[in-house]
C-alpha cells in the first residue's frame, strides 16, 4: 500500500487542527509510518463559515457519501459532534469496512459499548484518543503503557473550560460569567457550555477512562455529577484561607470490586501538584499497583492539541492496516468478552472530608447546636472559622471535617438547615487531602 487515505467529516476547531497537523508534520508522519497519510475529503454541512485555516477547494464537499463511499478512504474521522447523526456516520463507516477515529466523548459515553461491538463485528478499529483530556495521551497510557497494572485510582482535571473558569475566578477574581465568556472566546468550550460547567463533559470522559482502567463496559449513567455553577466566589476565597484550591475533579476508584465514579468541585491542598494545573490544562493522576503514582499533564482542549491526539490515532490505525493486524489493541483495553460490569458504590456510601459554609445568626449557642448535630451523626470537626460581625443579620461559619460518610453528612445538614438560627442552605464542598488518599 503506497498511502493511507483519510476522510474528515465535521470541519470545526478540532477538524482544522487535524488538517493543520497533517499538513505541518507530513514529513515526520511519513517517516514514522513509512507511507503518507493522505487527506482525501473534508466534509461539512456548511463550507462558508469562518475557519482558522484554508483548505484546497478540491477536497471540500457537503456530501457524506463522498467520504463514506470512496474506496480510497481507509479511515473516517468523525468530528461532527452530537449523538444521532454522528452514530449513524460511524456505523455506516464501520459497516462499509472503514476504520473510525472520533473525538466524540458524549457519543462514546452514551453509545460506546454498542459502537465497539459494531467495530468488532466488522473487524475494524475505533480510535478515540482525542475524546479524553485533549492532547494528553491518556487512552494510550491506559491501554498500553499501564497494561501490566491493576489500576486502583484516577484523579483528573478533565475539562479545560471549567478549569479555566475556576483559575480565572481564583486569580483574577472574575465573575463566573466573565470567565466563561473568555473560555468560549478561546475555543475551549463545548457548543453547549452547560456540558462543561455542569460537569457532564468531565463525566463523559471519566466514564470512558474508568472503563479502560477497570475492565468494565462504559457506565456513564452511574457517574455522580455536580458542576461548578453553584460555586460562590466566597468559597474559592475561604478555601484558599484554609490552604486549599478549588478544582472540578473527576475521581474513579476500584475498592474491593466496587467502583466509585464521581465528578464534583473539590478542594485540594494548594501545595499539591494538581492544584498547580491552571487554565485550559488538564492533568490525570493514576495509581497502579505496580507502577505506583503517575501524572499526565498537558492541554486538554484547543485546536492543535486535540488535532495531535486525532492524528496519533490515525497513525496507530494506519500501522495496523499496513501490518494487517486490525484491532490489535482492544478498544477498551480489555478483550471485549472479558469486560465485567462491576457494582457501583453509590455516592451516599463514599467517605471523604468536607468543607461546610453555614449561614447563621451570630448569637450564643449557635455553634454548639451545629456541632451537636454533627457529633450525633459521627462527623468530627477538623477546624472552624467564623467570618463577619455580630451586627450583620447572618454570618458565614466555615468548617472543615475529618473523613465522614456522605449519607451521615446529608442527614446532619438536612437537620442543621432546619434550625431557626440557620438563615440559608449550607454550602458543601468535598475535600481530598492526606486523610483521604496518601497521594495528597
Ligand atoms: N470542552 C472541552 C473542554 C473540550 O473544555 O475541556 C475538550 O474536550
User: What Rg is obtained from the alpha carbons, in whole angstroms?
Assistant: 24 Å
CATH fold topology of the largest domain: Rossmann fold
Q: Look at the helices and sheets and give the structural class.
A: alpha/beta
State mean pLDDT (0 to 100 scale). Answer: 95
Terminal-residue CA separation? 51 Å
Unreliable stretches (pLDDT < 50, length at least 5) are none
What small-molecule ligands were found?
L-homoserine
Count the DSSP helices: 14
CATH class categorisation of the largest domain? Alpha Beta
Quick summary of this structure?
The chain is of the alpha/beta class.
List keywords for this structure.
440 residues, Rossmann fold, Dihydrodipicolinate Reductase, domain 2, Alpha-Beta Plaits, six-stranded parallel sheet, 35% helix, 25% strand, binds L-homoserine
How would you characterize the overall build of this protein?
- With 440 residues, the protein is an alpha/beta fold.
- The chain folds into 3 domains: 4-136 and 303-338, NAD(P)-binding Rossmann-like Domain (Rossmann fold), CATH 3.40.50.720; 138-299, Dihydrodipicolinate Reductase, domain 2 (2-Layer Sandwich), CATH 3.30.360.10; 347-431, 2-Layer Sandwich (Alpha-Beta Plaits).
- 35% of the residues lie in helices and 25% in strands.
- The protein is built from 14 helices and 17 strands.
- It has helices at 13-24, 26-33, 64-68, 84-95, 105-121, 138-145, 160-171, 176-185, 194-197, 200-214, 233-241, 303-322, 366-376, 406-417; strands at residues 4-9, 37-43, 60-61, 75-78, 99-102, 126-127, 151-157, 224-225, 244-255, 258-269, 281-288, 292-299, 351-360, 381-386, 395-401, 404-405, 422-431.
- Strands 7, 8, 9, 10, 11, 12, 13, 14, 15, 16 and 17 form an 11-stranded mixed sheet that branches.
- Strand 11 (281-288) and strand 12 (292-299) form a beta hairpin.
- The model has no long low-confidence stretch (mean pLDDT 95).
- Bound molecules: L-homoserine (HSE).
- L-homoserine is lined by residues 134, 159-161, 188-190, 196, 201, 300-301.
